[in-house]
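Following up on my earlier thread - several people asked me to post the actual chain instead of describing it. Fair enough. Here it is, all 177 residues.
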Amino acid sequence: MLVYIKQRGSTAATAYSFKVRALDAAGNESADSNTLTLTTNATSGSGGSTEGDILSKSGDNVSLISNSDNLAVGRSTVPNGYKLAVEGNIRTREIRVDQDTWPDYVFDEDYILPSLEEIQKHIKEKGHLPNIPSAKEVKATGIELGKMNKLLLEKIEELTLYILQQEGRIKELERRN
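Reply from S.P.:
Thanks for posting it. Predicted structure:
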């Protein structure tokens, strides 16, 4: 369960303690939870952080929640341009990535499918498939899941076209024999 606490008007570098009680459907109230102590960053509160009041907790469960709705887990900052930053692994049932374009263009009549010789030359020269980032690039800058899925589907669709071409050649050879 995730409990989102938004503390307004907090003071910089100050510890705040919270306890939680739960109500069930019948209205029965639980006992207090263990105390959770969160400390505002030195730049939050009336001191004027541009992100707003930021609460953080040290230890294994470091998290940061700002009034701009950014969330950092296991780290103390959220990089510009992002709403969520996690230091460590994430386990979830699903991630949805919205895309404006999808590689169905590979099946368009005017799509230029590179020859297998061109692919082989590119691999020999650069060590990876065309349009796919190198291991060095991914290590340096990471990869966006949506973009990578799009590129992988593009390669699968190109492979499908190569297989269909080969199937046509095999059938032609069988017909000639």
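The first strand starts at residue 15 and ends at 18. That should answer part of your original question.
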